[in-house]
């Protein structure tokens, strides 16, 4: 890629990095010390970046200068997962294939306000495993707290809701089958004792 191509492709690359980081122009402006209008013109390609701009933006987006300027689709082998925030949770997909079982890492931020369960239903079957923190699971008429290392599985046609078990953040894995598939764990049979 020659210099003109790199500069021409930089605007969309900057916009992509900002979207991936889930930052606004104002937030990048504050972190990088570059004006919002300048950032907007850099992203639209109306302005060529200075070396100072590139150094500051590489720091904010946590990439090297080389990655910032010369990255082309397919060159970077790292998996870039796009997290989505909805229903008060950050959903990070761990699978990327249509149909079948889908795996997610979910996180609920720490907070002090009371959480009121809003139970929902949908087709499918779900299995959850708590990684860190305490997970509150409202399932039908039951309301329970799962601790790290604990798991639960249920038909998602049963009204359910996830929340924090206390004021601390919680992280958990979810494996979901839209068609009602269940996760199967295989265990090695116990050895027969001699004698």
Q: Low-confidence segments, ≥5 residues, pLDDT <50?
A: none
Looking at the chains present, what oligomeric state does this protein adopt? single chain
Shape: elongated
Predict the CATH topology of the largest domain.
Answer: Jelly Rolls
Count of β-strands: 9
User: Which CATH architecture of the largest domain would you pick?
Assistant: Sandwich
Helicity level, as a percent range? 25-40%
The proportion of strand residues reads 25-35%
Largest sheet, in brief, is: 6 strands, antiparallel
Which CATH class of the largest domain is shown?
Mainly Beta
Q: What is the chain-wise order of helices and strands?
A: HHHHHEEEEEEEEE
User: CATH superfamily assignment of the largest domain?
Assistant: Jelly Rolls
User: What is the strand arrangement across the widest sheet?
Assistant: 1-2-3-9-4-7
Q: End-to-end span in angstroms? A: 73 Å
Q: State the domain count.
A: 2
């Amino acid at each position: 890629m020659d210099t003109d191509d790199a500069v021409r492709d930089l605007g969309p690359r900057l916009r992509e990095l900002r979207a991936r980081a889930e930052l606004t122009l104002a937030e990048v402006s504050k972190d990088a010390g570059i004006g919002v209008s300048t950032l907007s013109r850099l992203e639209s390609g109306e302005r060529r970046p200075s070396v100072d701009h590139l150094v500051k933006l590489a720091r904010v987006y946590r990439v090297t200068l080389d990655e910032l300027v010369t990255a082309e689709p397919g060159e970077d082998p790292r998996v870039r997962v796009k997290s989505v925030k909805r229903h008060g949770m950050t959903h990070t997909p761990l699978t990327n294939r249509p149909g079948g079982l889908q795996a997610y890492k979910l996180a609920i931020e720490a907070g002090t306000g009371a959480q009121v369960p809003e139970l929902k239903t949908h087709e499918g079957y779900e299995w959850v495993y708590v990684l860190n923190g305490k997970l509150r699971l409202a399932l039908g008429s039951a309301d329970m707290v799962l601790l790290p290392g604990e798991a639960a599985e249920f038909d998602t046609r049963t009204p359910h809701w996830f929340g924090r078990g206390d004021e601390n953040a919680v992280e958990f894995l979810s494996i979901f089958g839209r068609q009602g598939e269940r996760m199967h764990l295989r265990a090695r049979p116990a050895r027969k004792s001699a004698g």
